[in-house]
Amino acid sequence: MSHRSIRTFMFLARVALATPLVFAAAHAVAQWKPEGAVELIATNAPGGGSDRILRLMQKIMQDQGSPVPINVVNKPGGGSAIAYTYVNQHPGDARFFVLASKSLLTNNIVGRGPSYTTMTPIAHLFNEYIAVTVTPDSPIKTGKDMIDRLKKDPQAVSFGIATSLGAPNHSGVAAAASKAGIDVKKLRAVIFASGGAATTALFGGHIDVVPISVAFATSLLRNGQVRIIAIAAPQRLPGDLAQVPTWREQGYDAVVSQWRGFVGPKDLTAAQVGYWEQAFRRFLESPEWKKELDTNFWQADFRNGAGFRKVLDEDNVELSKFLNELGLVKKK
To answer: What is the third-level CATH fold of 129-257?
Structure first.
C-alpha cells in the first residue's frame, strides 16, 4: 500500500470513530427537555413593560403546547438587580429565565447585581425605542420646549424613571439633554419600580415627564392619557406615531433603543441552551407574536446565545462611557 493510500485509510478510520461521538452529542442536545414549571422573571412590578411582554409570551407559548407550565414571576426592585440575582441563585437549572434589558449591564456597572458574564445568554429577541410622554394638558408642548426649560434650569423639569439611572428610559431624555450641552447629572430624576408606577405619578401631577417604551406610550396615547413629545428613534414611526417627531427632527441627535432577551443562570449546559434557543425561535415565528411586533413597533432581532453574548459585550463598553458621564460608575 502506498504512503498516500495509508494516509487516506487512517483519515477515514478517524472519521468513522468520531462520527458516533458527534451523533451522540447531537442526540443529547436534542433529547434534553425541561421537567417541572418554568419561571419567566419580570424585572418590574405587574403592569410594567417586562411584565406585559412576558404575559403575552406566556399565553402564546402555552397555546403552542409547551410541555411544561410557564409561569410569570415578578421580582421588582433594585433597578432590576433583584430579578437578576434571583435567577442566578439557581445555577445549572434551565427553568429560570429573566427577560433582560440593558439594566443587566447598567446595574453591574454602578455596583448593583451580578455581572452579565456570570449568567447564560439564551436568546436576543427584539429592540424597542423610547418615547417621552407628558400629560395631555402639560405646558411642555414639544421635546425642544423641554430642552429649552432645562437649559435655563436643569432642575426645572422632574422625570419619572423606570427602573434606574442610566437605563434606556433615563437615556431617552438624558441623551438629548447631553446633546444640548446640559449637565445630565443635574437633572431631577425620581426612580420608580416600573413604567406603570412612573406614569401613575405622572397622571397624579407628581412628575412632569416620563420616558417609557414606545409600546407602552402608544397604548396610553390611544386612550388619551398622554401626549408624546419626542421619540428616540432614527426616523418617525408609522401608524399612531406618524405625527410624533423624533429627537433628531427637533435638533438633538439622540437615538435610544432598549433590547429584550432571555438570560438564564450560570452553568447551563449546551443541551439546555440549545433546547431553549429553539423554543424561543419557534415562539418568535408565531403569527400572534408577529402581530404584536407590528402593534407595538418592536423591531424583531433574533440572535442565539452566542450572538447575544456579543451584543452584551459591545453594549457594556458603550454604557460604561455613558454612566461615567453621569458620574455613576463604581470605582474599582
So the answer is: D-Maltodextrin-Binding Protein; domain 2 (3.40.190)
